[in-house]
Specification:
With about 325 residues, the protein is an alpha/beta fold. Helices cover about 40% and strands about 15% of the residues.
Length: about 325
């Protein structure tokens, strides 16, 4: 009996030891460098600011189609609304109408691309003084079918295409196909950038109506419709064509040997760059929700929201 009891005691001690070993491993450990790295990552994923506006006093926001995701991100950060709900809430009248809407008092703040000359003339007639501040950087990009062998064009070659001096892809090292060169309507934001950045002193040729869609999405759809022969050329802004309306079968063509990308836009290696803006009326009272939102967008927190929405903050 004594031997049996001794044997059972040994078994219990062994079992107790097995249970105790993990407990020792749960003691506080040094150093905690890895935990600090994890903490930093978690902080980067938390909201960049506390909400400072309510849905009731949030300004009437308008802008460009390419800025819709940014409009949603700003609404979410400023009010605490869930981003998915904000994405379903925001809307815009597009670049030319947004500028006019602000000038006429029908909206309070814009996240918007540059106005075309025709739109600027309308704004001068209205006469409302505006405060316009760059907040982000985007690029005018040229789009071809992915099977097109032409990988890069110079700015001068692009100008010659859009003035009718170059009419066939074979003149650029491509196939023997007539170039179907798409444009946008004169008041669109992308057409404004096209004329400002590529053809400031030259008028482009008049494009056939079927090659002049009224919406950016229609232009990209039009380019894609020529996938079989690969003869189309068109343009848009980088963010929209990359992240909002990317279309299989299309790709960007490099300009002066530099392909557009987040990196080449941020370091300004890509040549056709232009800011986009936040705009308010100059008579907006100090301390108003409109000015609070505009001023916040220009802070480090605001710039972080712009970056997290996938845009390139203006430096």
């Amino acid at each position: 009996m004594k031997k049996l009891m001794a044997f059972m005691l040994i078994i219990c001690l062994l079992l107790a030891g097995c249970v105790y070993v993990p407990a020792e491993r749960e003691e506080p450990q040094e150093p905690k460098a890895e935990e600090n790295v994890t903490d930093n990552t978690q902080q980067a994923q938390t909201p960049v600011c506390e909400p400072f506006l309510t849905l009731e006093n949030y300004p009437r926001m308008d802008g460009s189609t390419a800025n819709l995701p940014l409009m949603a991100a700003v609404l979410s950060a400023a009010t605490g609304m869930e981003l998915s709900e904000a994405e379903n809430t925001v809307d815009c009248t597009t670049t030319p109408w947004a500028w006019e809407s602000l000038a006429r008092g029908n909206s309070d703040i814009l996240l918007v691309y540059e106005a075309a000359q025709d739109t600027k003339a309308v704004l001068e007639e209205i006469g409302t003084e505006l405060e316009i501040t760059p907040i982000g950087l985007d690029a005018l990009v040229f789009i071809v079918n992915e099977q097109n062998p032409v990988q890069s064009m110079t700015q001068e070659q692009l100008r010659q295409v859009y003035t009718g001096q170059i009419t066939n892809w074979s003149e650029l090292g491509g196939e023997d196909l007539a170039i179907k060169a798409f444009q946008r309507d004169p008041t669109s934001g992308s057409q404004s950038l096209f004329k400002k950045l590529l053809m400031p002193d030259t008028e482009p040729m008049e494009a056939p109506k079927e090659f002049t869609p009224s919406a950016m999405g229609e232009l990209i759809e039009g380019l894609a419709s020529y996938n079989i022969e690969g003869s189309a050329l068109g343009y848009s802004v980088f963010y929209y064509a990359s992240y909002m309306y990317a279309k299989p079968g299309l790709r960007f063509v490099a300009v002066d040997g530099v392909a557009p990308s987040d990196e080449t836009i941020a370091d300004q290696a890509y040549p056709l760059l232009n800011p986009f803006y936040v705009a308010i009326r100059a008579d907006e009272p100090e301390g108003s929700p409109v000015r609070q939102l505009r001023d916040w967008l220009l802070t480090q927190e605001g710039m972080q929201v712009i970056a997290e929405a996938g845009y390139i903050p203006y430096q």
